[in-house]
Amino acid sequence: MKRIAVVEDEPLMREELADLLKRAGYEVEEISSFDDAAGVLLQLPLDLVILDLNLPGTNGFFICRELKQKSSVPVLVLTSRDQMRDELSALKLGADEYLTKPCRKERLLARVSNVLKRYEGRRNLLEGPGFLLDRQTYTLYVNGSSAILPKNQGKLLETLISHADEIVSKEELCVCLWGTSEFIDENALQVNLTRLKKTMAGLQMELRISPVRGLGYRLETEVKPYET
């Protein structure tokens, strides 16, 4: 059974949406607290997020961006904001559908079904600017090309992508490679990172791995000729 999260601050609307989806055969997770909605959603095994944009304390644009940077879950925006600039902003952030309220139930269910079909089999994919990473096979798809990464390179890239633009410590990278950080072999870690950098450069990815002195590494958008 497909699991859908409804992120909506209006209780009656949230309950109506949840009831509609349940009657259509979906499992529903209702999100009614929004301080860390993105963090909560990222911890849930979801097939789709239905997201309002006008939320107390935050907004749907921020949540959409966080979800799309750190996961491959599809996002359907359902909002009363009917301005073209809002729709374009949401789509640029990665939203898969944009519907305005009020919306006919049949139309909403049809869009939900279409998005789920498009994402069938893609739950293992991590998305980023211009690339996809299959977490099962560590196949990296970039600009129409693909490469199967060695296991260690795949683990490192998956960990860095999952943290978006956050800093990942050396300890965390060691855990992802060897399951422990008790005995950090910085030379071995550096060798694996250097190999991954060369692979990314060869595929002309828009991201680069940048060291943060004393803290670790993070992915950044490429702004100058790639250096390995």
Automatic annotation (TrEMBL):
CDD domains assigned to the protein according to its UniProt record, in alphabetical order: REC_OmpR (cd17574), trans_reg_C (cd00383)
DNA-binding region: 123-221
Record-linked InterPro entries: CheY-like_superfamily, OmpR/PhoB-type_DNA-bd, Sig_transdc_resp-reg_C-effctor, Sig_transdc_resp-reg_receiver, WalR-like, WH-like_DNA-bd_sf
Keyword Transcription: yes
Boundaries of every OmpR/PhoB-type domain copy: 123-221
SUPFAM superfamilies reported for this sequence: C-terminal effector domain of the bipartite response regulators, CheY-like
Modification 4-aspartylphosphate, positions: D52
Sorted UniProt keywords: DNA-binding, Phosphoprotein, Transcription, Transcription regulation, Two-component regulatory system
Keyword hit for Translocase: no
Residue ranges of every copy of the Response regulatory domain listed in the record: 3-116
Protein purpose: May play the central regulatory role in sporulation. It may be an element of the effector pathway responsible for the activation of sporulation genes in response to nutritional stress. Spo0A may act in concert with spo0H (a sigma factor) to control the expression of some genes that are critical to the sporulation process.
Record PANTHER family: PHOSPHATE REGULON TRANSCRIPTIONAL REGULATORY PROTEIN PHOB, REGULATOR OF RPOS
The protein's name: Stage 0 sporulation protein A homolog
Organism: Brotonthovivens ammoniilytica
Lineage of producing organism: Bacteria, Bacillati, Bacillota, Clostridia, Lachnospirales
